[in-house]
Amino acid sequence: xxxxxxxNTIQYSKASGFKLLAFLCVFLIAGVxxxxxxxxxxxxxxxxxxxxxxxxxxxDFMTACAGIKVDRYAFGSIYLGSQxxxxxxxxxxxxxxxxxxxxxxxxxxxxxDSYFKSKGLTYLIFAVxxxxxxxxxxTVDKLxxxxxxxxxxxxxxxxxxxxxxxxxxxxxxxxxxxRFDFFHAAQSLQKWACQSGIKTLENYYCxxxxxxxxxxxxTGRFDWELVAEPEKNLLITxxxxxxxxxSRLSAILPNAEExxxxxxxxxxxxxxxxxxxxxxxxxLQTALADEVxxxxxxxPFNDLKTYDKSHLDRPESERWSQAFVxxxxxxxDKCLEGGGRYTPPVIEVFDIATADIDGxxxxxxxxxREGIKVLDSFAESPDDNKTxxxxxxxxxxxxxxxxxxxxxxKAGMTVRFGGWFWxxxxxxxxxxxxxxxxAATPVEQFNMFFMLSSEPKRYEISHTFEYDHDCALVQITAxxxxxxxxxxxxxxEFKPPETTPELRLSPTSPDK
Amino acid sequence: MLFNSYTFIFLxxxxxxxxxxxxxxxxxxxxxxxxxxxxxxxxYAYHDIRLLALIGGSIVINYxxxxxxxxxxxxxxxxxxxxxxxxNLALLGYFKYTNFFFENVSAITGADxxxxxxxxxxxxxxxxxxxxxxxxxxxxRKIKERDFLSYALFVAFFPQLIAGPIVHHGQIIxxxxxxxxxxxxxxxxxxxxxxxxxxxxxxxxxxxxxxxxATPVFASVRDPETAMSFVTAWKGSLSYTFxxxxxxxxxxxxxxxxxRMFGVKLPVNxxxxxxxxxxxxxxxxxxxxxxTFLRDYLYIAMGGNRKGKARRWFNLMATMVLGxxxxxxxxxxxxxxxxxxxxxxxxxxxxxxxxxxxxxxxLQKTVGWKIISWFITFIAVVIAWVFFKIGTDMLSGSSGSxxxxxxTMLSAMFGAGGFSTFGDDIAALDLKFWLFLIAGFAIxxxxxxxAQIFGNVRATYEEHGPSKAFGLITVSYRPNIIWTAIxxxxxxxxxxxxxxxxxxxxxxx
Lengths: 512, 509
Known about the structure:
- The complex is a heterodimer.
- Chain A is α+β, with helices and mostly antiparallel strands.
- Chain A contains 14 helices and 19 strands.
- A two-stranded antiparallel ribbon of chain B has the order 1-2.
- At the A-B interface, α1, α8 and α9 of A face α8 and α20 of B.
């Protein structure tokens, strides 16, 4: 035995067992006093008597009540499993609606409730203030949610930061779990007392008139008393969205792939939606849905009113949801028919043996407009032949053009232009197919933006013409100015219509 | 599992005590060790089962490697040790510094790395250091006996697993073979729960209350538009100064109490650091087990003070910078460590200068000198905590800018915002804040620390004698009925008081 261990031979006290018992007795008495004197986990058991218990009858659970402050309970009690009913319903719901503060408000409506009932689908709203998809992802993983239909507010895919409100729950669950469990137990006690038929208990627990916040344990629907602000009738100022939203898409697509590609969702149908707000980007949503195989739903409005220029007020939420469910309906029907499944990205790995390289590298023969030039055989190509062209863009948007005069365009004909492109630094390339050589015919053009990286990839653009034209023009450019990119083995294909197109005459001038 | 959760206090600890005692009775020391290892791993992986693989793998690989180092000779012995230390540091580096590395490379080169943010497993900084020490000491032939169960328990023993103290194998493994280990001795449990209750009281009543004053100030400070007043800035920084002290000292005290319940004495981690009258002394009193580790395994390994003054100061600086970085992967922790390194270098240089000037050497013994020294030391520590706190907030995902936040706070503390609202700001401070501030200073400066209060019953690994409060009354715990009642009341208030903040700061490191 050394002096630095607990020495068994030294006795500091006699009758230690008795003293430990005394410790426990004083601990309990002092505990009771401190519970009464200070706020404690147990205080909920009598503070709750002041809260109006009317929500229990609707199958709701209390999210907050004056005098009882339980941060993050509204969503944390589901995430950490304290609200067992809500968790059970989340696990069995046909549809789970993930979203943010706008979802909380605009989906908590009678129209939404009636709609899902009419479809025979159970649903649960899982929305968190300021949410990103990361909070939804954590919830799906922790609770093992496997809904038939996943409805995701596209806005939550904009960022992958968990957010201050949710991150604490994820990283410090102990900080909340006990607190939530006690509040849940207090609610269970009040609910039981109010249904017990015991007068004394009813008088004590069920006469409270303090308004509480409520949330449905069945649908996750929020009571508007909790979330609503006074109506101010402020119109939404819509965001000006770029079309096509290529750069936004490339930033957000990885988030969508991560969330929608969750293994729990392998049999789920995905719907992407937006609640109209200044953050709405419907074109982005459509492009995103195309990429991942989801079904986009957006209901355009131009007169929706909010209380803060962002969140719809209660009557407007009802109006919005009445219109929204009409647009949602065909999407859900498609879901029920097996559509809307997540399409994983095709990972392009360059393999010279199998790559589509049946093309030419002669950009120097293209027509260079002012501010763009081609340096031949400058860069290494992916197959190690020094045949790639370096295209130098001195002036943003300056075009490099190729006119295909030898192939007249017929209505229904598809022109497809594809090639391998890359750049030393991330560069935005625009490719365009335009009708040409026939000024009298209607202008038809199709643009696409590609974010080029240092990795050579094949990019493709195609357009099916509606009218006959004398020829087609393909042009490429990049931005910003003073940038450059590499081009290799492009190919332009002209694919005639598969079936005889409906005869459409090109408009002619009146004197012909 | 948190030390202040009811699951831990009312379920985990009593059940583990009972099972360990039963195992000790029927299966001896090894049975008790096995139960405690299992319980500790359960404690560690309670919220994330994946952590089990991490700590389990770390323990097994380290034990196997040290098994290879032990009989090896010459270069093989050296390179196996390098491998062992390297693996530990690589694991810590991966989890703790990958994000930081890529963020900085991105910031410098503009390259956009597609990497997933890596979450830091709790406690890894602590048990990695313990195992690095074990590897190094195996190399130095300081390890005489090897036993897997004892080793696993030394690493995973739950009272010290998550946030220290960083125990040395030499201090603890021998205790797992002692007579009292794992046995239920009412006296140890009485002393243990008393210490635990005091630690919890420190955490919940003081640290969490100070957090209530510090957090809003530091939350607002990262907004570059914030106009911070002199009084608010000092309210925030002093509150945090006491929050971190009562938080970390509280946790370490609880760890000591828990260890005692199982018949194990853990080393003291805090010894009234704010009583220090210079920075050298501060680091002998603050997070003592970390300072000791850094001294023994980094500073001395780099040459310590054996290679001349310049090299000594460089070693000191490097040790503190790395010590800062150990706390978290962001530049504010580096600045915090650098600042303390600079403080230490200045302190050593000043001491050398004072020794050469007879008048100063005489003055050094006066009360006035000591008061001024204490004041300078305390202010230097408070300033450094501003960097530390903002660094901690950024680790936990708070938004805002480190540079803006630190700049705003420090400039306000030095009066850059003017004093026009001084009177109004002072008047706006609530009475509760003043009471807590006075209590904070009184306890930190006037009261004995836990090791001294419980010195009579030899609470910590290093034995400390009793001390007087404010130089007047000896405050020394005795397991008599009065002290029992006092400690039970303190424990009851601590357990049942509902504080708004409950996580421990050092869990994030």
